[in-house]
Amino acid sequence: MLNNANIDIELISYLATDKFLVALQRFVGRRGLPHTVYTDNATTLRAANRELISLWNILTSTKVQQFYAINDIKWKFIVSRAAWWGGWWERLIGLTKQCLRKSLDQALLDE
């Protein structure tokens, strides 16, 4: 059996629900809809999840509802008060940040 994993990094200026949703939209535009999103319990991410669910519930077009039913995105949060569960991706984020700091040095980035 062949297993694939992908890590996609979106740089945003600060973590807010609207910034996260724009980053998610960019991701979907490049990579397509993810089947599962693993995140910690950050307030911003929980708010984004609630916003997406309410948006999908509002959509009334049968074709749109079928599309989301077929491409259901599962959002999995780590257990509350168990930050060590996200240790494997936090380590990858740390390594990536270290590489970015070394390669970008003092460069300013915009969105």
Kindly list the characteristics that best describe this protein.
2 domains; 4 helices; Integrase catalytic domain-containing protein; 52% helix; 111 residues; two-stranded parallel sheet; mainly alpha; RNaseH_sf; 2 strands; RNaseH-like_sf; single chain
Topology (SSEs and partners):
Blueprint: H1 17-31, E1 36-39, H2 43-58, H3 62-70, E2 74-77, H4 87-104
Parallel strand pairs: 1-2
Task: Give the structure's gist in a few sentences.
It comes from Araneus ventricosus (Orbweaver spider). By secondary structure, this protein is mainly α.
Give an overview in words.
The protein folds into two domains: 9-80, no CATH class; 81-110. 52% of the residues lie in helices and 7% in strands. The protein contains four helices and two strands, in the order αβααβα. It has helices at 17-31, 43-58, 62-70, 87-104; strands at 36-39, 74-77. The protein has a two-stranded parallel ribbon. InterPro entries: RNaseH-like_sf, RNaseH_sf.
Q: What spatial order of strands do you see in the largest sheet?
A: 1-2
Described by the principal axes of the CA atoms, the overall outline is: globular
Query: What does the average pLDDT come to?
Result: 72
Which series of helices and strands comes N to C? HEHHEH
Tally of separate domains: 2
Q: Indicate the proportion of strand residues.
A: 5-15%
Rg measurement, Å? 16 Å
Measured as a percent range, the helix fraction is: 40-55%
Work out the helix count.
4
For the termini, the CA-CA separation is 39 Å
Unreliable stretches: none
The main sheet comes to: 2 strands, parallel
Total strand segments: 2
Structural class: mainly alpha
